[in-house]
Amino acid sequence: MACVLNLFVLSLTLLATLSVGSRQFDVLDKKINAVHDIMEVKIEMIKEDLAMVVKNLNMSAVGEIQGTNGNVSTIQIANTMVENMKNSIQAAEDFYKVIHRGFISEKMALRKSISRIEQSMTNLQHKLENVNGDLTSKFQLLNAEINKNKDDIEKRVEKAKQYAILKSNEDCKISNIKFNGELSLLQSNFMKIVNDVKKDLADIRVISINQLTFTRHTYDNSIYFELNSTMNFSEGSRRCRQYGAHLPEVTTSGENSFLRNTFVGSRRGIRIFLGATDQLIEGHWIWEYTGQEVRYQDWNTGEPNNENGGEDCLEISYWNVRWNDARCTTNMTIVCEFNI
Ligand SMILES: [Ca+2]
Ligand SMILES: [Ca+2]
Q1: What element of type H or E holds 65?
Q2: CA separation for the pair 175, 155 (Å, rounded)
Q3: How remote is the CA of residue 3 from the centroid of ligand 1, in Å?
Q4: 319 C-alpha to center of ligand 1: Å?
Q5: Nearest to residue 279, comparing CAs of 339, 231, 326?
Q6: In angstroms, what is the span from residue 296 Cα to ligand 1's centroid?
Q7: Which residue spans adopt a coiled-coil conformation according to this UniProt entry (predicted)?
Q8: Residue ranges per structural domain of the chain
Q9: Which one of 69, 258, 276, 323 has the minimum C-beta count within 10 Å?
Q10: 233 Cα–ligand 1 center, Å
């Protein structure tokens, strides 16, 4: 009986500690069946022991009855023992039935729990599937929305870029036009100022020249005047520049005739410098003030002859009133030309 009770307590402990789940339920079921089998074996063994005891007692009683000194009390004792044994067996069987019912009840309760849990799990699974489905569709929607926004944003960025480039180009064009306009205006204003200054300067120069005591002669757009002392070429050139003038530069026969008639004529011994030299390249005559090549020419016969290799300055001399190359160091009358 102690063995049976221990198994029962063990099983209850297992029941108490059993977690939910069909696998653990199967383990419990097997243990219950094992307890059932053990109980049946034990009861059967007790029954066999009892049968043996009853048989022995009967044999002993029969022997004593058949003997001369038969004893009725011994038989009664034996019958009482048998009865007690039967009662014990009945009690064990009843106890076993109680245990068995307890196990069955626990099994049923467990089955119900497991069933509820399985139902809950199924419901949960469905909910999870629903949630999963919802999440999937929401994710797809979100993804579609993102892609749509992405395309939209990319288009907007591209549009903004194009606009910026276009705007920049337009701004550049406008700025360029504006700049060119302002530049033209500035140039125009500047040239006007320059011309005004030039005009003022020319006026001042003319006023200055008119204040000189020298006799002034006008031809074309120039005023010519003769200094009152003789000088060599470079001194004469420098002095003319001090008056804002230069040695005469003859570009036409009319001008040449004017100079001959006005400053040389019949004046004996007069020699005047014109403003040309071939000092840089022998034979290549250049007007000093303008830097122009001498085109109009009125050389005397046999001139320029660069006599003795030293004649680099141009003169008109009294003896034939035509051009001659002469030494630059010779002192001559200085005539200055002033451009009006
Ligand atoms: Ca020469
Ligand atoms: Ca000469």
Answers
A1: helix 22-66
A2: 29
A3: 157
A4: 20
A5: 326
A6: 17
A7: 114-163
A8: 2-131, 213-339
A9: 69
A10: 13
| Alpha carbon of 156 to ligand 1 centroid (Å) | 83
Percent helix, strand and coil across the chain, each to the nearest 5: 65, 15, 20
Which residues pair with residue 225 across a beta bridge?
A: 216, 336
Distance (angstroms) between ligand 1 centre and the Cα of 244 equals 27
Which of 127-136, 230-239, 324-333 is the least confident region? 127-136
pLDDT score recorded for residue 21: 55
Q: Is the pLDDT of residue 213 over 80?
A: yes
The mean predicted confidence, pLDDT, of the chain is 83
- Average pLDDT on 223-234 reads 96
Residue 63: the pLDDT is: 66
Cα 228 to ligand 1 centre (Å): 27
Task: Please give the distance, rounded to the nearest whole angstrom, from the Cα atom of residue 301 to the centre of ligand 2.
Answer: 10
CA of 265 to the centre of ligand 2 (A): 20
Report the pLDDT value the prediction gives residue 11, as an integer from 0 to 100.
45
Span from the CA of 324 to the centroid of ligand 2 (angstroms): 5
Q: Which CATH number fits domain 213-339: 3.90.1150.10, 3.30.40.10, 3.10.100.10, 3.40.50.170?
A: 3.10.100.10
Q: What token pair was written down for 236?
A: 């004469």
Ligand closest to CA 300: 2
- Predicted pLDDT of residue 67: 57
User: Of 88, 5, 23, which Cα lies nearest the Cα of 50?
Assistant: 88
Separation of 333 CA from ligand 1 center, angstroms?
20
> In the structure, how many helices (H) and strands (E) does the chain have?
5, 7
Ligand with the closest atom to the CA of 280: 1
Ligand number, closest to the Cα atom of 326: 2
Exposure string over 167-191, b if 16+ CB within 10 A, otherwise e: eeeeeeeeeeeeeeeeeeeeeeeee
